[in-house]
Design a protein that fits this description.
- The chain has two domains: about 70 residues, Arc Repressor Mutant, subunit A; about 35 residues.
- Helix content is about 65%, strand content about 5%.
- The protein is built from four helices and two strands; from the N terminus they run αααββα.
- The longest helix is centred in the C-terminal third of the chain and has 28 residues.
- The radius of gyration is 20 Å and the shape is elongated.
């Protein structure tokens, strides 16, 4: 694995560490421990995620996910609902009894 790939995978691990801490946040040290890196590496990753709109630093210095992952989830759910509607329409067309 190349270093670039390792750092990308580590960012995903940081996102996973933040997950579930959206209300109260999580300390830098706890993120670092969850990911298995030193504090300065975790801080760099958190700052990268913050710059991309994926993480937020709270006034008490704890970190949490921003609304961006939730927006992605809502987009997914909307797309899934459209797909389900399309499947239902096709099903209806193929299961209607002939006149």
């Amino acid at each position: 694995m190349t270093p670039a790939n390792a750092s990308h995978l580590r960012l995903l691990s940081v996102i996973e560490a933040l997950s579930g801490n959206e209300v109260f946040g999580i300390r830098l040290r706890d993120v670092a421990q969850a990911v298995g890196v030193i504090d300065s590496t975790a801080l760099r990753d958190l700052e990268t995620l913050a710059a991309a709109g994926w993480a937020q630093k709270q006034p008490d210095s704890k970190w949490r996910l921003s609304a961006k992952p939730i927006q992605l989830l809502l987009n997914f759910q909307s797309g899934l609902a459209r797909a389900e509607s399309g499947v239902a329409e096709v099903r209806q067309n193929y299961t209607r009894k002939p006149l």
